[in-house]
Amino acid sequence: MKTRYYSIAANVRDFIMVLALAVIPVLTPTFAIAYPTLYFSDIDSGPKTGNTDGAGGLAQSQHGAIVTIWGHNLGSSQGTSKVYVGGLEAANVYYWKDADGQLPGGPSDLKTYHKMQEIAFSIPAAATDGLNTIKVIVGGVESNTIPFTVRAGNIYFVASSGNDSTGKGTYVSPWLTLENVFAGGNGKIAAGDIVYSVGVGTTKSLQVGQTSVLVGTSANPISLIAYPNSAVAISNTNAPLNVTAVRNYNHYPSTPYLSSYINFSKLSVTTVQSGFSGFQGMRVVGCEGTGPTYTTGGGSGFIGGGVANGSSLHLSDGKMYGLYIHNYGAVGNTDTMQHLFYISNRSGSPIPGYEIAWGHFTDNPIYQGLHVYDQGVCGDWSTPIRLHHNVIVNQRGNAININTGCTPVLTMAQIEIHDNIIVIDPSHSTSVAAIRYDADGTRAKIYNNTVYGYNSTNTFGHGTIEFVNNLIVDRKAIAFFDNAPSSQSNNLFHSISATPPPAPSWAIGAIMADPLFSNPSQGDFWLKPGSPALDMGSEIVIPTAPIDFFGYPRQKSSVSIGSMKSKPNDVTGVRIITDNPSSP
User: Fold this and answer.
1) Percentage of the chain surpassing pLDDT 90?
2) Residues 428, 377: Cα–Cα separation, whole Å
3) CB contact set of 16 (below 8 Å; sequence gap of 6+)
4) What's the confidence (pLDDT) of residue 427?
5) H or E, element range at 180
6) Domains and their CATH numbers in the chain
7) Cross-strand bridge partners of residue 512
C-alpha cells in the first residue's frame, strides 16, 4: 500500500512519496482544503481501443472502455478539472456531475447522504498496457489513485435501432436485445468483453447463460454497463416464471459450470423477488433496485444466493458498491425470510468473502437489511466479509444482522462492520434493531458506526465481537443493548427520549453525552465543534477502518467516535491519502 503525505503551506504544494507510515509531521494549516478522494469504479480493467461511439470525434483506434468513478470533492461539474489514466488525460469525458441518480449519470442516489460525485470517461489509446492508476486533479489538488488494468477485450453496443441477426455490435450497427447477447452459445461475447446498453433493458428477466454458460475471469470479466445518458431498466414482469430480474441461469443446484465474473453497472432493476442471483466474482456497481410487489415464500434477497451441493463458486468474492435500494418489499408483508442481501456458504468448503460498501438503502419494507446468515453445514469464508460506508434508513427489520445456525468448518474469517450510518425513525416500526450479532465461531470488528435510532434492543450473542468507537443514539426509550460484546472501548451512548435508558452495564468507560450532530433531521451527522465524540476514539481501528464516512483518513491521537468528525473546515495542513482507500 502506498501512502501519500500532502502538505499545504501558503501557495506551495509539496508532494512527498513515502513507503510506510512513520512520523506524521505536525503543521499549522494556513487554509482549509477539500481533498478530492476516489472510492471505486464500475470496472477495474478493460481495453484502450475499440470504442466505436465516436464521442468527442474520436475513432475506435483512439479510445477504449468507458469507465465511471465515484468519490468526494470532485466538483459538481468538470470546469478545469481533469481525470487521468496512468498519467495520461482521459480520451473523452462523457459527464462530470453530482451522483444524484439523474441522467446523464447512473440511477444510484449517492448524493443525499454520501455527497458523492461521479465521472464517466474513456480510456486513452496511448495508455500503457497492464496495471495503471486513475486519479483526478481538482482545483490543482491531486486525488488518491484507484487501480485500472489496460488489457485486451472487445467493446460492443446494444440499442433499439439494432438487429440481433445482422448487427455487428458496433455503435452504428448495434445488437438489439440483451437476452440474445447474454444467452451465451452464439459466440457474441466472451471473457474480457464489455457490452454498453444504449437504453435497452428487458421486462422478461435477463437469463445470463441460458443457452451456454458465460465464463469470465478475475482478470477478464464480462460486463454489462448502461451507456452514459441512458436509462437501462430491467424487470421481471413475467413472474412467477422468473422471480429474479438478472439470473445466473444454471446457478443452482445441479451444475458446477456456472456463469462467473460478470459485472453489472448503472442498471435500474425492478423485481417481484430477487434483483440479482449470485455469480462468482460478480461486481454490481451504481445500480438502483426496487420491488414493491415482492412475493412471499422462501428466503432470498435483492442480491441473493448460497453455495451448496459441493459447489464453491456461487457468489464468492463479490463486490457490491454504491447500490441504491429503496422501497423494496411490499408494505405490510410480515414475512421474515426476505432480505436486502442473502448470501451464504453451505458447501462445506471455505470461499472468498464479499464486500458491500457505499450503499444507500432506504425505506425498504423487506425484513432483514445487511444480512450475513448460514445454517446447516457452514463452509466458512477464506477472506473477510466487509460491510462499510453504507447508509441504512428505515429498514423494516434488523438493519445489520449477523446470524448463523451452525458452527463454521473453520474459524470464520473476520466480519468487518465499520463506518455505516443507520437511521431509524421512532414511528417507522416496532421490530428494528440497528445491530444484531449472534454467530458461533465468528470474529467481528464493529468499528465507528453511527446509529440514530432503533426500535428494538440491539443484541450481542455468540461470536468474538470487538465493539469500538461506535456512536449509538436512542430515540424511543429502548435499552441500547442486551448482552455484552467480547471486548469494547471508546463508545458513546445518548438518548433523546423523555425516559432515557441507562448505559449498558458492560460499557465501562463509555461516554454518556449528546454527540452534537450538525443536523440529524437532514441526514447531517457531522459533529459540531465541542462534541464529546471528537478525538475520543481508539486508534486500534485504523488498520481496518483507515478512512471515515467522507474519506478523511484517521490519524493517531485524533480518531473520533462514530462515522465522521467535524465538517471539513477543520481539516489540518497534512492529510494522508492511501491508494485505493477501500482496501487498507
Assistant:
1) 67
2) 36
3) 4, 5, 7
4) 84
5) helix 178-182
6) 33-150 (2.60.40.10), 155-297+308-332 (no CATH), 368-584 (no CATH)
7) 493
